[in-house]
Amino acid sequence: xxxxxxxxxxxxxxxxxxxxxxxxxxxxxxxxxxxxxxxxxxxxxxxxxxxxxxxxxxxxxxxxxxxxxxxxxxxxxxxxxxxxxxxxxxxxxxxxxxxxxxxxxxxxxxxxxxxxxxxxxxxxxxxxxxxxxxxxxxxxxxxxxxxxxx
Amino acid sequence: xxxxxxxxxxxxxxxxxxxxxxxxxxxxxxxxxxxxxxxxxxxxxxxxxxxxxxxxxxxxxxxxxxxxxxxxxxxxxxxxxxxxxxxxxxxxxxxxxxxxxxxxxxxxxxxxxxxxxxxxxxxxxxxxxxxxxxxxxxxxxxxxxxxxxxxxxxxxxxxxxxxxxxxxxxxxxxxxxxxxxxxxxxxxxxxxxxxxxxxxxxxxxxxxxxxxxxxxxxxxxxxxxxxxxxxxxxxxxxxxxxxxxxxxxxxxxxxxxxxxxxxxxxxxxxxxxxxxxxxxxxxxxxxxxxxxxxxxxxxxxxxxxxxxxxxxxxxxxxxxxxxxxxxxxxxxxxxxxxxxxxxxxxxxxxxxxxxx
Lengths: 150, 356
Hints:
The structure holds two protein chains of two kinds.
Chain A: H1 7-18, E1 33-40, E2 48-55, E3 58-65, E4 75-80, H2 81-94, H3 103-109, E5 115-116, H4 122-125, H5 127-130, H6 132-140
Chain B: H1 3-10, H2 79-82, H3 87-96, H4 115-145, H5 151-175, H6 191-195, H7 202-227, H8 231-261, H9 266-281, H10 292-303, H11 309-333, H12 347-355
């Protein structure tokens, strides 16, 4: 059972996401971006950083990286571990994110937002909005991945 | 045996009239995303002219037909007037990321709402339906004015017309789906928004429509998830925001092309942005700002009813701050950020006022 966050967990979710054609319709579809996932650890420990790569209809998985890699991604999503776990718990409970647990709602409800970038190029940051349904489908796919708590 | 079959055996048909004078033996290969427009940009087929003399509708790369009559009074015939570097990419993305307002929205999740909230939602639906008519009408006119030699940009605009049609219908459907209905027209398409259609130059139109107008509406769609009271409304706003972000991307990339290739037009473009900032971002037409009917509706929806209007208004102000920040960063990304450094733009001051 993969734990969140880990390369194995992102790989397992990507396998579910890539194998379900429903995620290519209904506002999903071609998606080309590199998105960082930053999981802030409790007690000031270093954050876990992963880089998710989407190419066309596929997610190539999430590779572990260091903070320097965030300069190269189009945007990154950063939250404390507890908030990521709460979002994933909601997805597990309902089969998809509900209420304030969607990525867009999390972005809007946080003073500094959920998605941001190192480079500050709004064209690239806008990919978070342009591909939002695909990103949501990806995390919603985690409802079908048994996840061990960190 | 039929006569046609006999002819095939006894004669060799002369196909010379088909005019095989263009490039031949072209073999486009599908890429990872299928056979895309980018994959068929081969040889001369992939080279749009700097200036197009095409008034007869001949497809780019095809042999011309002598004596053809003119079918289009194409006013946009200079590449720099309309070009952007990733039009093919945006077009394929638009095609592949379509959705249906009939079947992809979970309409069954809508339940009766308190009257004040339903009324505010219906007022927003009415406003957004009005706005989307403009956002569809305007690019449609420019498609017809643009030479077919620049079909990549035309095709993106055609997809935008489809997107805006869907936005118009989905907000109309929402207004009629839950015991409410359309409210009094807001008049939001008069004044600055309506004047987008008076643009006499494509870049003028794009700066007004794609950068200023759609950038502002993108923020409204995004915050729609906070105004939503069920999964149907959440889906509506999220999917509309995706489409709108693609339209904004068109404008940013066109402006970036102009910034890099047309220095003689920089001052002119700054003037368009001056005008847009006065009208949409700083004036009474801004739906997230001082435009009473929509800002009241949004505050009611954000607060959770008219009893919580002040709370909703505070959330609206926070969103307006983000709207302005995103606008500044988009204009910078488009290559015209100097206006925020040299004091030409008043938007940073407005942002400081909101923060104070």
